[in-house]
Amino acid sequence: MASWHSVHLEILYNVLGWVAFVSWSISFYPQVILNFRRKSVVGLNFDFVVLNLTKHTSYLIYNASLFFSSAVQKQYHEKFGPNEMIPVAANDVAFSSHAVLLTAITLFQIAIYDRGNQKVSKISIGILLAVWLSAAVCVFVGIHRHSWFWLISCFSTIQITMTIIKYIPQAILNFHRKSTSGFSIGNILLDLFGGFTNYGQMAVQSIDQKSWVNFYGNIGKTMISLISVFFDILFIVQHYVLYPSKKRAVPSDGSSGESVVPQTQEKKADGLDIV
Questions:
Q1: Which of 22, 83, 98, 227 lies 20 to 30 Å from 195, alpha-carbon distance?
Q2: pLDDT for position 150
């Protein structure tokens, strides 16, 4: 069984992992608090939230299974070699568990707060049905063949797919509204920092083990950081460069408006929306 060669790198690995956990976990709160203060979820794309819940649920299944199950770990070592370290850390399980909880809370806010004319699109509903039907098929095949690592890899593929898809509706909504009002940039800044520290953690393990297997052995963790960093940068450009003005009022139906409101009033409505 693989072990750490450097105590210092092991400590750095754990520090980076928990820093990523804290950053990524805190990143959920600005949006939740913003919704609570505004008593409105107008400006938050509902497709983003429901797809995000599927994504984090799939990621939790993968992380918890590979971290806790000896059967899954055995098949991982059979595939990548007995000397390779398991690429899932305790902070990965903690993050995905917390992410499922906070995303569910955000979904609850959507149900109780002012939504304007926004709703979950039929396309997203169709995607969710297709994804969970595919997951059910994978579960049936995996149990029949006792292919446990293959089975959780299916959930890893789902979370990668959802990570790509989930950001697109929000980016499009911001583009159509020519505004990021109602969408917390604090979430994005923390998410970006978490992505960088997550990559740092994986790099430290690779340096210590003199192997890059953990990058493709846990392709889900690799891709979640890469994709998140890309879209986080896109949202930052939208918020600070493309649509920096806080003077445009945005109607509740999500379309662009022409009326002008005082800048202080808009800031008050945005709550924790960082500018």
A1: 83
A2: 96
State the pLDDT at residue 1: 57
pLDDT along the chain (275 residues), means of 10: 83 92 89 93 90 94 96 93 87 94 96 91 94 96 95 94 87 89 84 88 88 79 86 93 66 44 40 36
pLDDT at 130: 96
What would the 3-class secondary structure string for the chain be?
Answer: CCCCCCHHHHHHHHHHHHHHHHHHHHCCHHHHHHHHHHCECCCCCHHHHHHHHHHHHHHHHHHHHHHHCHHHHHHHHHHHCCCCCCCCCHHHHHHHHHHHHHHHHHHHHHHHCECCCCCCCHHHHHHHHHHHHHHHHHHHHHHHHCCHHHHHHHHHHHHHHHHHHHHHHHHHHHHHHCCCCCCCHHHHHHHHHHHHHHHHHHHHHHHHHCCCHHHHHCHHHHHHHHHHHHHHHHHHHHHHHHCCCCCECCCCCCCCCCCECCHHHHHHHHCCCCC
Rounded Cα distance between 173 and 5, Å, is 48
Least Cα distance to 198 among 23, 55, 2 occurs for 23
- Taking the chain, what is the end-to-end CA distance rounded to the nearest angstrom? 49
Tokens representing 50?
A: 């429901």
Residues 6+ apart with CB under 8 A from 117: 252, 253, 254
Which pLDDT score is estimated for 262? 40
Q: What is the pLDDT of residue 241?
A: 92
Residue 263 Cα distances to 108, 113, 202, 259, angstroms = 30, 24, 43, 12
- Whether residue 138 contacts residue 157, with contact meaning beta carbons closer than 8 Å, is answered with no
Which residue in the block uniquely carries the two structure tokens 């052995």? Answer: 217
pLDDT at 260: 37
